[in-house]
């Protein structure tokens, strides 16, 4: 079931779908806080269903390579992240790549199903 309601209803709507034994794809942000999302993960496990935030970038082939590079430590630890995807940033391609790496790393961290 796709949950695309206003984000303040995502937790309530997703939980209802999970309790009805439906797999759930919930739009961003999946919940208003991490505790709510952990609760949904637990409910999904208990009801033997799948839940995922609608983060399409996870499925781009380059995402795995960026994740591998980021986890290798060759870029160091992220210190600052600024995300603004609304215009031409007029920055050199190397800086933009680093921005993209850290943005995707943060996405993987936030959407990871690992404890």
Detailed description of the structure:
With 115 residues, this protein is mostly helical. It folds into 2 domains: 2-53, NAD(P)-binding Rossmann-like Domain (Rossmann fold, 3-Layer(aba) Sandwich), CATH 3.40.50; 57-111, no CATH class. It is 47% helix and 7% strand. The chain contains 4 helices and 3 strands. The protein has a 3-stranded parallel β-sheet, with helices on one face. Helix 1 (10-19) links the parallel strand 1 and strand 2 (24-26). Helix 1 packs parallel to helix 2 (34-46) and helix 3 packs across helix 4.
The gist of it:
By secondary structure, this protein is mainly alpha-helical. The chain has helices at residues 10-19, 34-46, 61-72, 93-111, and strands at 2-3, 24-26, 51-53.
Tags for this entry?
4 helices, three-stranded parallel β-sheet, 3 strands, mainly alpha
């Amino acid at each position: 079931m796709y949950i695309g309601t206003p984000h303040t209803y995502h937790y309530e709507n997703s939980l209802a779908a999970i309790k009805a034994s439906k797999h759930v794809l919930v739009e961003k942000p999946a919940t208003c806080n991490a505790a709510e999302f952990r609760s949904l993960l637990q409910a999904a496990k208990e009801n033997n269903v799948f839940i995922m935030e609608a983060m399409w970038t996870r499925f781009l082939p380059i995402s795995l390579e960026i994740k591998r590079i980021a986890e290798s430590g060759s870029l160091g630890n992220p210190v600052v992240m600024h995300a603004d995807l609304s215009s031409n940033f007029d920055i050199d391609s190397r800086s933009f790549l680093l921005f993209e790496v850290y943005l995707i790393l943060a996405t993987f961290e936030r959407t990871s199903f690992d404890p």
